[in-house]
Design brief:
Layout: H1 2-15, H2 28-43, H3 48-70, H4 85-103, H5 108-113, H6 117-135, H7 155-158, H8 161-177, H9 189-196, H10 198-209, E1 215-225, H11 230-235, H12 239-250, E2 257-259, H13 273-282, E3 288-297, E4 300-308, E5 314-319, H14 333-336, E6 359-362, E7 365-371, E8 390-395, H15 404-420, E9 424-428, E10 433-436, E11 442-446, E12 452-459, H16 466-470, H17 473-489
Parallel strand pairs: 1-2, 2-3, 7-8, 8-9
Antiparallel strand pairs: 1-12, 3-4, 4-5, 6-7, 9-10, 10-11
């Protein structure tokens, strides 16, 4: 058992190469057949209880090391508080274990339905996709590096998200990845062809869906990336210098709406109207400006986005609703307040979450603002099914340096554009900032750890997507149908 655990753990570590920034997509077609064969060798003749334990060891090892290497970028954030250096190792090894525990109820599927070859193939795909859904929703969720994100390797592959969303896309991809098993021992060309056909169908659907953009040329948006390192943000002695830098970058282009990143202005603008006046007076274009800023309401700090217009007033405010546990607030604060973990919370105080997900009305139409990692939760982008003109993602990924984290975070913005059929404007403090069309294609970007500004007319949104209408309902429907199929096929043995 131990040697197989080592192999599945190695597979999990290697599986990270399918994600950004490496994008070795076709490794999936090697990793999952091997994982399937190892699982089958160990558990095929085991009773349910022992089988679950074996799955937890083997598949758990796979997922743990997938998470361990995939989330390793998170430890960069601890470099800015040396007193937390020991906590970074707790996070590095503890977060993957937590994600594994959240995903582990899905191990029931292969435990029960590991029967015929076809059923085994379906059950592994169902297990992985259900596990992703669970870890994406339990305890605020962490929907990061789902296997379907490997489809970002090609624009055509990505388009399937407009129908399936990320969880069903994972199910289909893992199914397809196992087609080679039907050339193993007892050959079944028909089932192999069924599974193999999934990928070209996805590709050709994407090819048919993608159209040329229609730009609304009188509606222009500029995205700003100041590239202020986190150490400089923390130690900055001249707060106005950061503002002047943002203003200079904003004057590179004429635009109707200018977007600055999360926490870009290190002052409470609601209590510093002179700073607002300074900003408006020194920007050459008659623009509205969306600014990431901290607000103070009801004796609570909030991570917010402020829309400022030419009247030098705060026209609209969006308060981040989905906060980062341990990073922006302390869960179970009364229980944990005496522990050193509390110190990791921003400002040693923490934020209060916004009351609701809402849109704001800008000069260019209705916008959904997603602050930082809110963009990784597809179901939260447009829960009220509003008529969006564009999505804005402002973030500060400077915490994570030149690691894989900012690249993977950026990918989520592209998927949200496809799901909603809506352009995304992403402003990141140190990158990656980008203008993304409704098909998830990058119109323009500023590279990681670079300083710059980009501008584009507003791309017209696509027709309403299937996913924007029904969300993950199709995923749950397919799962129910899958369970029915597995029950019906359970007694038909064909695994040689």
């Amino acid at each position: 058992m131990f040697k197989f655990f080592l192999v599945t753990s190695l597979l999990g570590a290697i599986a990270n190469l399918v994600q950004a920034p490496w994008n070795f997509f076709f490794l999936i077609f090697l990793i999952f057949p091997i994982l399937h064969i190892i699982l089958d060798k160990i558990i095929r003749n085991q009773k349910y209880r022992k089988r679950f334990i074996s799955i937890f060891i083997l598949l758990g090892g796979f997922l743990y090391f997938y998470f361990l290497f995939g989330f390793s970028w998170i430890i960069y954030a601890f470099e800015y508080k040396p007193e937390l250096s020991s906590f970074k190792y707790i996070t590095l090894f503890g977060l993957p274990f937590l994600m594994l525990i959240f995903a582990s109820p899905s191990f029931i599927i292969p435990t029960i339905f590991w029967d015929t070859k076809f059923i085994k193939t379906i059950s592994l795909a169902a297990c992985i996709s259900i596990g992703e859904f669970l870890r994406g929703n339990i305890f605020t969720g962490f929907s990061w590096n789902n296997f379907s994100h490997a489809l970002a390797a090609h624009d055509n592959f990505m388009q399937i998200f407009s129908i399936t969303g990320q969880y069903l896309a994972t199910f289909l991809l893992i199914l397809c990845a196992q087609f080679v098993l039907f050339f193993w021992k007892k050959i079944d060309y028909f089932k192999a062809l069924i599974l193999l056909s999934i990928l070209p169908i996805i590709f050709f659907y994407g090819s048919a869906r993608i159209k040329e953009n229609i730009f609304i040329n009188n509606r222009v948006i500029s995205v700003i990336q100041p590239n202020v390192l986190q150490s400089d943000k923390i130690d900055s002695s001249d707060r106005y210098e950061d503002v002047k830098n943002l203003i200079d970058l904003s004057n590179n282009h004429e635009a109707d709406l200018i977007i600055w990143p999360e926490s870009s202005v290190p002052l409470l603008l609601q209590y510093n109207p002179e700073v607002i006046q300074f900003i408006i007076d020194n920007i050459s274009s008659k623009s509205e400006i969306l600014i990431g800023n901290v607000t103070f309401q009801n004796e609570k700090f909030r991570n917010s986005a402020l829309l400022i217009d030419q009247s030098k007033e705060i026209k609209a405010v969006y308060d981040k609703t989905h906060l980062v546990p341990f990073g922006e607030y302390m869960p179970f604060k009364n229980l944990l307040s005496k522990l050193p973990f509390l110190k990791i919370v921003t400002g040693d105080i923490g934020f209060e979450s916004g009351e609701e997900v809402k849109t704001i009305s800008t000069i260019l139409g209705t916008a959904r603002i997603a602050i930082c990692y809110e963009i990784i939760f597809p179901e939260e982008i447009n829960p009220n099914k509003e008529d969006l003109d564009f999505i804005v993602n402002i973030t500060n990924d400077a915490w994570f340096g030149n690691s894989s984290g900012p690249y993977q975070h950026f990918i989520s913005s592209r998927f949200r554009a496809i799901e909603q059929g809506t352009p995304v404007f992403r402003s990141a403090n140190t990158g990656i900032s980008a203008i993304i069309d409704p098909y998830g294609r990058v119109i323009d970007l500023v590279e990681l750890e670079s300083k710059g500004s980009i501008v584009s007319p507003l791309a017209k949104k696509t027709n309403e997507t299937f996913y924007s209408k029904v969300g993950d309902f199709l995923f749950f429907s397919v799962l129910v149908l899958t369970l029915i199929i597995m029950v019906l096929l359970k007694k038909k043995k064909n695994y040689g």
